[in-house]
Specification:
TIM Barrel, two-stranded antiparallel sheet, globular
């Protein structure tokens, strides 16, 4: 099972997460308390192994801005958290992770509209488009037709519930941000516990 640690803002946290076994790191370029600028993101990404997915998170951003940021900082994937259309997703030159907010069963119908590299299932929208620490009812995912999609599960995950979430949803990857923080800052001990819990799942 693969793990993405999102909302990376400093080199120490990035390298610690990689050392513990993270497969992907997320850098937020949209409005968020975890927002990073290009220079900071590039300085961190330049230190990361090639095999690590470097994901940039954007919300309703212009295509030119996304492509420019991705190229200049060294992203490998684009994560879109707004109202981006399937056509917009397909127009980008980077692999796309399309995030969808899930509240009710009806919301899973959105999944089949997108032909992206990954679909990220997130909890209900809060103040920000992601990283709000709220989960949806994972039981619903078991009833939805998701087998043909590479699913990333996000929203409300932490080391205490991630194993149960994996068993119910069977995602390709799990994504955590606020669930590995203490007082709004990434907590290296929580990152370690979260990754260990995920990697122990058979």
């Amino acid at each position: 099972m693969k793990v993405k640690i999102c909302g990376i803002t400093d080199r120490e946290t990035a390298l610690a997460a990689v050392e513990q076994g993270a497969d992907a790191l997320g850098f937020v370029f949209a409005d968020s308390k975890r927002k990073v600028d290009r220079d900071t993101a590039k300085s961190i990404i330049d230190q990361l192994p090639a095999k690590i997915m470097k994901v940039g998170v954007f919300v309703n951003e212009m295509k030119e801005q996304i492509e420019s940021t991705a190229a200049s900082v060294g992203l490998t994937h684009i994560q879109l958290h707004g109202e981006e259309s399937p056509a917009f997703c397909n127009s980008l030159s980077f692999p796309v992770i399309k995030a969808l907010s899930i509240e009710k069963m009806e919301d899973f119908k959105q999944v089949n509209r997108f032909d992206c590299s990954f679909i990220l299932l997130d909890g209900p929208k809060g103040k920000y488009r992601g990283g709000n620490g709220t989960a949806f009812d994972w039981m619903m995912a078991g009833q939805a037709e998701l087998s043909s999609k590479k699913i990333i599960l996000a929203g409300g995950l932490d080391e205490t519930n991630v194993v149960s979430a994996i068993e119910q949803v069977h995602p390709y990857m799990v994504d955590v941000s606020s669930g590995v923080e203490t007082n709004g800052k990434k907590d290296l001990a929580k990152i370690k516990q979260f990754i260990e819990a995920v990697k122990a799942v058979k």
